[in-house]
Known about the structure:
Oligomer: homodimer
CATH topology of the largest domain in chain A: Dihydrodipicolinate Reductase, domain 2
Distance between the termini of chain A: 53 Å
Strand content of chain A: 25-35%
CATH superfamily of the largest domain in chain A: Dihydrodipicolinate Reductase, domain 2
Amino acid sequence: MKKTHGIAILGFGVVGGGVAKLVTDNKEELKKYTGKEIEIVRILDLRDFPDSPFASVITHDYSDVLSDERVDTVIEVMGGSHPAYEYTMAALKAGKNVVSSNKEVVANYGDEFVKAAKEAGVSYRFEAAVGGGIPVISPMLFSLRQNRMTEVRGILNGTTNYILTKMFTFGDSFESALADAQAKGYAERNPDADVLGIDASRKIAILSALGFDKLVNVNEIPTEGITGIRAEDVRAAESIGHSIKLLGRCIARENADPFIMVAPFLLPSDSPLAGVCGVYNAVEVLAEPLGNVMFYGQGAGAGATASAVVGDLIPIIAYDNYNPIVPGFNKTDYSPKAAFGEFKAKSYVALPEGSEECVRKVFGEVTPISSCGEYAFITEAMSEADFASRIEKLGVKPLSRIRFA
Amino acid sequence: MKKTHGIAILGFGVVGGGVAKLVTDNKEELKKYTGKEIEIVRILDLRDFPDSPFASVITHDYSDVLSDERVDTVIEVMGGSHPAYEYTMAALKAGKNVVSSNKEVVANYGDEFVKAAKEAGVSYRFEAAVGGGIPVISPMLFSLRQNRMTEVRGILNGTTNYILTKMFTFGDSFESALADAQAKGYAERNPDADVLGIDASRKIAILSALGFDKLVNVNEIPTEGITGIRAEDVRAAESIGHSIKLLGRCIARENADPFIMVAPFLLPSDSPLAGVCGVYNAVEVLAEPLGNVMFYGQGAGAGATASAVVGDLIPIIAYDNYNPIVPGFNKTDYSPKAAFGEFKAKSYVALPEGSEECVRKVFGEVTPISSCGEYAFITEAMSEADFASRIEKLGVKPLSRIRFA
């Protein structure tokens, strides 16, 4: 049997560099647990790294990776759907295991990868795709499977959680909190994927597949970001003992596919997810007979992500012919968007001053919230469709509307 | 290949009943994931259960379990060290897998079980022994292994956390909070194992083994319970924005075995563990390069514990010859008690009024805390040995002393 396990790293950026460092720094420990030495055989990147200790294994040509028989596992940490998709499929078909941190490609093509891995008798794993270094995929795959999931929900994006935390702690506006996040390197120059909820929608798609056995089209997930959250909303939330968090949610229904969505939600300040601040992520699983469990930690960063990637690698190396059961990645035509009209929630609504009379006519009795210079209130629980038709009747565009979780 | 996987349940109490129910209720789902039907072949209990649907498989004689070739896995949910130890060893030697929820026997004999399982080529697993339904053993075994642990710490006992939460929320005395916990069924009539920290010491022994590769003698873990926590201490903690939690802690040291202890600690109210209230448990892992992660959920109860037990069972059934690497369970003579003198912490100390002058002489400048009718202050960080010698010099027995985490 081979004494070494060869890996190729696709993408030598922050995460790829973190993986190379972790594997190198902990060589002896890893050998103790897996029985083999991990050898970095190839690193694919467009750039050269003449001063890196890994300079000699850098290649610009993916066929070098594919044809190299020393490569047992391909670590795909490039991000983006293409060519990550093509590279992953080619690796699996060539009989190489693949470990990925790329939520976009997992959410879009996870079903094909799982199938291809099974056919080739190799492993496809992606712990780092959700929640960075937090073990959440593995527990859902291995430790919680015997439960009936009621809901899986999470703070899945550290950038938006940092921005919301800043708004709550310092009363910042969204714009000022975003600028601060950009200055600190937590938000990209073009922050759309984060602040519009796109990143979170990919992650909840993956969690939904694991919890409910169906992989939906990410574009069919109703997705609202946090760009509309105002300092006034933060003050109103605080006045009723609530916090606002951008949540990905997947909620079981009786005899129907689950609701899946990404949106800001109002949470009681003493709920476990409300206490998750700054760039931290957390995933809460509500299940029978388990009750609720929460996984919490750093959702991004070189170290945390590298930890998750190498954690996936260990059983692949340690167990021969390790081909974990990955249920759930069955592509479905079910559209959470189409079902969303039936989703029921209470809402906080802010309107221009002077709307009280109209609101009473259209919404009946509501619970007012004191708000300076505007009229804010909480509705009864009602469906999205019902809410939308009442707002249309009202004829006034809300300044804000945030659902209660 | 066999189409069924036979299990025997040792102990048909709350947990054993929960396992039987979960396996029966989710028969189809479990078959889908594991490929086999789980059959409850034997249930060992001293009692008869004539009205139970499982009446026909009840036995009072363990040799029925051992000699029954249909039994592939023994589920040990009896509690206590004996005869759980003897039954477990006999099952492993007979080539049967063992899944346990019994922290006492895991903490005392985990090393022997892991060795015997390895020799027999079977599995020994114990997710339910720490944190009830929270996946924490598995993530430490499989997902976090590639990290260097800095500290593993947790709220490992729901009873004491309920009592402390009650004291903080309602200003209860320890006695009154304990009586309430007993009335609600959260505390036993003899609450010693919980309130004296013994239960938590077993769990931190197990977590220490997983995180630091050495299983210490549980009796050698310095263990303080919560019986000395007074309503005055709760008020003092609140006045400085802190919470008091009973923590099991295992803290890495440079070139030395880790500090291991169970004691109440003062935590800043906004720290993740401080937010864990009521009967909930949580385990926080601080590691490099991961950062920190926390696992949170219900630490006890039939449903949660059964979920963990069946979660252990799934890979045993699904993977042929599944024999997970369980490193860490190497018995050591190292005594955390002997090392504890070197452990450094700041302390909150409450003394009778009029001690100010003596304190200044012995402790130098301290930070006073306003406290009605007594003199309370915070010391600098100092070793246990140093603290003890100063208290001896002081000649006054503290009303309370609680370390800062």
